[in-house]
Design brief:
This protein is of the alpha+beta class. The chain has 10 helices and 36 strands.
Length: 647
């Protein structure tokens, strides 16, 4: 019995010594490193945990050896790996997950083994995309390129759309381009807004919708490579929302009918330049002339008593004048208006000599807005103001708030597109004649948010449980609050709290902290597809190698905002035009390509551009460089003028 007891004591001593030896304790600043929480048994997770412990104490060589051994025993990286049976890897004071290639790469980087570090970090990022792996991979690439002098040229920018120079009447423009470099592109900034780049690449396809202001827009595009070289390109885009002006001096003298032919004298002018004029059935094409004199005859169409005149500028604005010949011909000529010697109706030197003082203001007529007391409502982002302004002598100018159009005739046709803000919009239209007699009209429009753009049409999202390490349990409520705030403010998802409401997606968050960094992982699970459709990760690292990373509310807010931003990038809220409809196969083609970040599982709402009326639903099935294809949920006939928006 005594011998048995001695043997047992000896075995216990041997085990204790072997555990001590296997853990290879290291002391520094009264802290112990290169240890595991449980007895070391040589399993892959034991080597991984001990490697993390060594790395936190900056014992790089020992950490390297342990990570290499862990990889030999299990090379597959995973966020929540099983150790044995139903047990998952749990490391109380370290990162949530098993990333030995990543941690080995970081340890190699710390030892200045740059080429080996790049190899391991590349493997890790291809296995599981984490922000920590991307951070150190870019750092290692930069060191490698600088040490070997491999960066020969600054980055290049190739804008594929729009074609320049560009005149447009749209309130925004979608810019497509490719940034490339002989090393790696790390940053793209368009009009002071960064394009999300999770990790540097040699070539990046990008797109950005940029808002435009009236007049000349200078849009700067900056690209920077991994070593800091940069290239800047400036796009000049002209936004013109004022249609061509059509001036007729005196319709009773300038428009005549003879033998079923209409003779008209008028001027068409536009700041951006005229591209086309259509009079009845006759079309004239131009190359951007800013002023065109018309003094010609045109056949009368089927004894129609109207003259149809349409002018289009190079920005796409179109002004129409549908002139009732019976009324125009009946106007009595006013005294005092002189034509010049050439017989032109209008000219820059046109004069008038009124026989009496002109005290009558001009008259303004706006189509579709006849009631000055009515408050109009719309779901559109803009409103078209078209009509005419006329005066007994000569019209000088018309103003739409601060936008001005100058005229020189008695009767003048105009068109202006006014952008609308959410809520109440007051548009003041003022006119002046040549004697500065003023006239004024006011239009009040309430802009409402269309239903398809409301939060109710977005994916219903519910926060699932948040998994944190034991020492972070006191932070759970704060983490939830900041994440909910970030999701609510951007309004990409319809965040629901009602337990009885069934969500489209659930969001599961994992939070981990080490002495040197904190990391958030988030999985977006689609209930209908029954799979995770987005995995995102955010990471903040300590600036100091000597001080332990201290968690704070500001850090949690930053990580929550980044998680929400990365989710929005993975499943973006974006709208675009339909370029083709194949109703025989229930397929639509949209203008949204790879740079829009669409993915083949995403749902689209098809709606009418004119009134935002919902027409159909579609699911993305293919995404190419500059377009995507989607399968319609139901058979339906609709106009190609329809657009799409993601759910």
């Amino acid at each position: 019995m005594c011998n048995v007891l001695k043997i047992l004591i000896l075995l216990c001593l041997l085990i204790a010594v072997s555990c001590l030896k296997s853990n290879q304790l290291e002391q520094k600043s009264q802290s112990t490193y290169c240890v595991t929480e449980v007895p070391f048994r040589g399993e892959w997770w034991h080597y991984y945990e001990r490697g993390l412990s060594c790395a936190s104490g900056f014992f790089w060589e020992k950490a390297e050896a342990d990570f290499r051994e862990a990889i030999i025993r299990r090379g597959n990286e995973k966020k929540s790996p099983r150790t044995y049976g139903r047990h998952f890897l749990s490391l109380p004071y370290h990162d949530h997950g098993y990333f030995p290639h990543r941690e080995l790469g970081i340890v190699l980087f710390k030892q200045k083994k740059i080429d080996e570090a790049i190899q391991e970090l590349t493997i890790s990022y291809s296995n599981f995309k984490t922000a920590r792996a991307a951070l150190y991979l870019d750092r290692a690439r930069k060191k490698h390129i600088q040490h070997n002098h491999l960066d020969y040229q600054p980055p290049m920018i190739n804008i594929t759309s729009p074609k320049l120079p560009l005149w447009t009447n749209q309130s925004s423009v979608l810019i497509y381009g490719v940034a490339s470099d002989d090393s790696y592109i790390q940053k793209i900034i368009i009009k002071k807004q960064s394009i999300p780049i999770p990790i540097s690449k040699k070539e990046i396809l990008f797109s950005k919708r940029v808002s435009l202001a009236s007049g000349e827009n200078e849009i700067s595009i900056l690209t920077k490579d991994i070593t800091g070289r940069e290239t800047k390109q400036t796009l000049m885009i002209h936004m013109d929302r004022i249609g061509p002006g059509i001036s007729i001096d005196d319709p009773s003298q300038s428009i005549k009918i003879d033998n079923n032919k209409i003779h008209i004298k008028c001027f068409v002018f536009d700041q951006s330049g005229i591209s086309k004029i259509k009079i009845n059935q006759t079309i004239f094409n131009y190359d951007g002339e800013t002023e065109i004199k018309i003094d010609s005859e045109f056949p009368q169409v089927n004894d129609d008593n109207f003259l149809y005149l349409q002018a289009i500028d190079i920005a796409g604005n179109c002004t129409s004048a549908n002139i009732d010949l019976s009324k125009s011909m009946a106007i009595i000529d006013r005294p005092g208006l002189l034509a010049d010697a050439s017989g032109a109706v209008l000219a820059n030197r046109m004069l008038y000599k009124p026989s009496q003082v002109d005290s009558s203001p001009p008259e303004i007529e706006i189509l579709h807005f006849h009631d000055p007391l009515k408050i109009y409502s719309t779901v559109q982002d803009e409103v078209i103001l078209e009509g005419y302004i006329q005066d007994d002598y000569r019209v000088k100018s018309v103003f739409f708030n601060t936008n001005r159009i100058d005229f020189r005739g008695r009767k003048n046709y105009f068109k202006f597109v006014q952008s609308l803000n959410k809520g109440k919009n007051v548009i003041i239209i003022r006119g002046l004649d040549s004697s500065d007699n003023p006239t004024r009209k006011q239009i009040t429009i309430i802009k409402k948010i269309p239903e398809i753009k409301s939060i109710e049409k977005r994916w219903k999202l519910k926060l699932s449980n948040i998994q944190t390490m034991p020492q972070l349990s006191d932070w759970n409520e704060i983490i939830v609050r900041f994440l909910e705030t970030a999701l609510f403010e951007r309004k990409r998802f319809n965040l629901i709290a009602d337990k009885s409401e069934i969500p489209d997606c659930t969001l599961k968050l994992f939070v981990a902290k080490t002495p040197s960094f904190v990391e958030f992982f988030a999985d977006l699970y689609d209930r209908s597809l029954k799979k995770i459709i987005a995995k995102v990760n955010a990471h903040i690292e300590s600036d100091s190698s000597e001080k332990e990373f201290v968690l704070s509310r500001q850090i949690i807010k930053s990580l929550s905002d980044e998680i929400e931003l990365r989710l929005t990038q993975e499943v973006p809220l974006i709208s675009g035009k339909i370029s083709e409809i194949d109703l025989s196969n229930n397929i639509i083609t949209t203008e949204l390509g790879k740079a829009s970040l669409l993915k083949p599982f995403m749902e689209l709402i098809v709606y009418k551009k004119q009134n935002f009326e919902e027409q159909n639903f579609a699911t993305i099935i293919q995404v190419d460089d500059y377009q995507s294809m989607a399968s319609l949920n139901t058979s339906a006939t609709f106009d190609i003028e329809c657009e799409v928006i993601t759910r």
